[in-house]
Structure formats: structure tokens, C-alpha cells
TrEMBL record:
InterPro entries: DNA-bd_dom_put_sf
Species name: Stieleria magnilauensis
Record's protein name: Helix-turn-helix domain protein
Entries under SUPFAM superfamilies matching the protein: Putative DNA-binding domain
Amino acid sequence: MIVLDDELIDRIAERIASKLRGEFYGDRGNEPSADKLELIDADTLADRISLSRSTIDRMTRAGRIPSVKAAKRRLYDLRDVVEALKN
């Protein structure tokens, strides 16, 4: 069983944020466009940032990544998650 302490979570978060910055900004160095809000579910988020679903759930419960609850579904804005992982 792997135990995730705060230091390990912070290192994971920084690796994810770094990877996503490259995916979003590429060589342009620009922020992603804010003209369209796209909410994705936890499984999609896990795939996009290469983490397990259980890690996404743990980070959500710990308040490390933002989400919204719509009916019975929890949804994420990938841009908000990237911003949260930067800090």
C-alpha cells in the first residue's frame, strides 16, 4: 500500500502541472482561451493528467483540486485544476 504524504502529493501536483502547462501552452506561452467552459468527469480528468481515479478523488476530498457537483456527478474544469496544481 502506498501512503501519500503532503510532500509526495505536492511533488505529484507539480509534475502534473508542469505536464499540463506544456500540453496547453506549448511553444506559445499563452493561457488557454477562456471562451468555452468545458467540464469533465473524474475519469476523464484522471486520463488527461495521468493519475488514477482514486488519486483524483483523494485530492478532491483534500481540497487540492476544485470541482463542482452537478446532481450526482462531480465535474472538473481542467483549466481550474491546472491553476490549482500550480500553487
